[in-house]
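User: Some background: our group keeps a shared notebook of sequences we're curious about, and every so often someone picks one and asks for a predicted structure to add to the entry. Today it's my turn. The entry only has the sequence so far, pasted here. Could you supply the structure so I can complete it?
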Amino acid sequence: GRVVAPPPAEAVTLLNRIFMSEMETEHYFTIVLANVDLTTGLVTLVQAGHPCPAVQRADGRVEFIGEGGLPVGLIDDATFHHVEARLAPGDRLLIHSDGVTECMTRAGVLLDDDGLADIMRGLRQTRGQAFLESLVWKLSAFAGDADFADDISAVLLEFKSDPMHG
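Assistant: Of course. Here's the predicted structure to add to the notebook entry:
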């Protein structure tokens, strides 16, 4: 039969339980786990201490979804809740590490969600891999070519883009 994945909030709750009970470690981690229905565009997402993912609408508007949540491996009986968003054709979802929003200028100014939204609006015509590469260039320019203090990673999902434009 078909294996049905548990809903994201259940999966992360289970992960937390395993991490707290079976692993002797002081470590904890952040995660965003999302199910995306590729037919309807419904995103069901759980956020555990990770930055809020960004949804960019086809018209360029950017909104952030999620409520923060606790990292996995921090508190025994932590509960995790999902949030929902819906992607329409031409929308995209960016899930990024905190190295992106905590990118800092030499003067110590954080990029933050507002700065990321600005960059995304400026790159709204840029699709796919080119968008991710441009994002890294923009972050590098923001940081003033300083080495990034933290890792920079991201996943981009573009929903039902025009096949002619990637």
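Suggested note for the entry: The chain has four helices and seven strands. The CA atoms of residues 33 and 83 lie 11 Å apart.
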